[in-house]
Amino acid sequence: MMQPLDKWSAALVLLLCSSVAQDIRAASFNVNPIGFDLSVERPSGVLQIRNTGDTPVRIQVGAVDWSTDGRQEVQADTDALLLNPPIFAIQPGQIQFLRFGMRNPATPATEKSYRLLIEEVPSGGPQPPGLKTLLRVSIPVFIVPLQKQESISWQLRRQAGGLVLIAANNGNVHNKIVSIQLSNPDGKDALQISTPAYVLPGQHKEWPLANGTIRSGLVRLHVQTDKGEIEEQLTLEADQVSSR
Q1: Among 221, 101, 229, residue whose Cα is nearest residue 166
Q2: Contacts of 118 (CB under 8 A, 6+ apart)
Q3: 8 Cβ partners below 8 Å, 6+ apart?
């Protein structure tokens, strides 16, 4: 049977808990909105950054060109977007507005994709002891074409590691995939993918699937996007699957 703590033990526990709480310093921020569409008619935007923590936060902002190679995102530094200010400090509870815009406003035939990287950086002064997690937020920015064309095709392919679901964007604007469900006609062996992903124009996105999850034959595909739903029927053959 556990014995009750005496007053000295209880005091020691309270002291230790207090020390742990003091060693974890809370610092956080949020941003709004979480995405932008720019154009010649609207070549700039404003991002609101609020310090929701209880300590000052120092923020650095950068811009990168954004593409995908199937399963991973590829980012490269770019000067296509102007940022003002690129680095700043925000006091607890305060708001900073970041203004940004196209360096050379023009209407592309195919949508261009960038990301704003909002990163917390250590302050220049001495750091108090304790655990400190630096935050990083990535915001998509699209330079949209005048005429939008949406076209996305789906395939299932067998590869050495198993089945792979592939979405190819043949249009000139992005598609944001919210969730995916694959199932056999009887509704059994349903496979759910709930991690949001972007399929950028002229590029493709791959989702590896576990072996044995989907049987050969007809496969139902249900996709939820930020613009609506997609329903397709795929046929799983011995070595190839394509949309019907």
Answers
A1: 221
A2: 29, 31, 47, 49, 59, 60, 61, 98, 136, 137, 138, 139
A3: none
Instruction: Kindly report, residue by residue over 172-190, the tens digit of the pLDDT.
Output: 999 999 999 998 877 776 7
| Digit-coded pLDDT (tens) for 73-108 | 999 999 999 999 999 999 999 999 999 999 999 999
User: Strand pairing of 136-143 and 112-121?
Assistant: antiparallel
Classify domain 29-124+132-143 at the CATH topology level.
Answer: Immunoglobulin-like (2.60.40)
Which two three-digit tokens encode residue 161? 């590691």
Alpha-carbon gap, residue 244 to 228, rounded angstroms: 20
- Going from N- to C-terminal start, the domains of the chain cover 29-124+132-143, 152-236
For 20, the 3-state DSSP assignment is helix
Domain 152-236 has CATH 2.40.10.10: no
Average pLDDT of the segment spanning 157-166: 83
